[in-house]
Amino acid sequence: MEKPGDDEKLTVPLLEPKPATYKHQEDDDAEEDEVGSVRRRVVEENKKLWVVAGPSICARFSSFGVTVISQAFIGHIGATELAAYALVSTVLMRFSNGILIGMASALETLCGQSYGAKQYHMLGIYLQRSWIVLFCCAVILLPIYLFTTPLLIALGQDPDISVVAGTISLWYIPIMFSYVWGLTIQMYLQSQSKNMIVTYLSLLNFGLNLFLSWLMVVKFHLGLAGVMGSMVIACWIPIFGQLAYVFFGGCPQTWTGFSSSAFTDLGAIIKLSISSGVMLCVELWYNTILVLLTGYMKNAEVALDALSICLNINGWEMMIAIGFLAATG
User: Fold this and answer.
1) Contact 174, 232 (CB under 8 A)
2) Which of 10, 156, 161, 261 is buried most deeply by CB count within 10 Å?
3) Distance CA 156, CA 78 (A)
4) CA 216, CA 228: separation in Å to the nearest integer?
5) Are the CB atoms for 145 and 169 separated by under 8 Å?
6) Residue 290 to residue 295: CA distance in whole angstroms
7) What is the pLDDT of residues 93-123, one digit of tens each?
């Protein structure tokens, strides 16, 4: 027999509905958790990015710093020497570097694809093929360094500056050939995330060039020859270090020794290099036109000196962005 009030008990819910304020609190907590999760992911991705970008920025900043240091010491020698250095480093070197860097950019793509596909032995073969292609390109570019003086005079540059530029360009020949190995080995190592060895050697390059330039110019008073000689030494020391690292066990999976396969399928490498390097060449060459036009001004020495300093400082700053670009790639 039902007692009075049983119907009321049956209608009472087992769980009381949550107050509206409690629901809002839950929504706020979920939103805070989501924001915190996003922040954690951003921090984690930034850490991963800096692991690659940090060494890459240091390497590029130090390598480009060699040009800036040499320019600073040449500026203490004379205005004509500084203007001549501006013509060679900005016109000739950027012209040849545009071609060499553009041709070497194919190696970055090929090494990245092969390493991702776990075809490790192909990295060493691609590296050797790039050496062959870039060395041939450097030989083709050699006449512009051998005949710099008549070439610049034919382009309407000041004869006095052109004569000094002809002397500086001869010193740049071994520097140009150093890029054949320097650019390719750096891309080869970075595709395997071996960035620290590149960074250490680049910092050594920067410090060595600073010390040698000071020693030869300030202490021994060797002038232009001292600056350019220290620059040549500083450019080749890191390359010898990188070669020793690769040849003597630093990359056991990807370097198995020299192979005759490096001489095969060079046509495909050349086609890929040209297609990937055209845009890069255009980006590097537009500064060359500015410097050549500046050389036509009345007071060419001062104009060239000022413009080259600004361009080199701007280029030094750009190494930070290029380092991040290499990391994201």
Assistant:
1) yes
2) 161
3) 22
4) 10
5) yes
6) 9
7) 888 888 888 888 888 888 888 988 889 989 9
Contact by Cβ (8 Å): 274, 103: yes
CB atoms within 10 A of CB 265: 12
Q: List, in order, residues 6 or more apart from 266 with CB less than 8 Å away.
A: 129, 132, 133
pTM of this prediction exceeds 0.85? no
CA distance linking residue 70 with residue 229, whole number of Å? 10
Half-sphere exposure of 228 (CA within 13 A, CB side): 23
143: enclosing H helix or E strand: helix 121-146
**Residue 127 to residue 97: CA distance in whole angstroms:** 18
Sign of the alpha-carbon torsion through 114, 115, 119, 125: positive
Output the six-digit token pair for 300.
């060419």
Residue 110, token pair as written in the block: 């090929």
* Distance between CA atoms of residues 301 and 82, nearest Å: 8
**Which 8-state DSSP code applies to residue 248?**
I
Tokens encoding 159: 């004869």
Average pLDDT for residues 162-185, to the nearest whole number? Answer: 94
pLDDT (tens digit, 9 = 90+) per residue, 179-191?
A: 999 989 988 998 8
* Angstrom distance (rounded) from CA 225 to CA 231: 10
- Token readout for 94 is 């950027």
C-alpha–C-alpha distance, residues 110 and 195, integer Å = 18
**CA angle at 9 for the pair 8 and 15, rounded to the nearest 5°:** 120
Average pLDDT, the chain: 84
Element of type H or E holding 13:
none
CA distance 226 to 223: 5
> Which pair of structure tokens corresponds to residue 100?
């060499």
What does the block give as tokens for 294? Answer: 């500046």
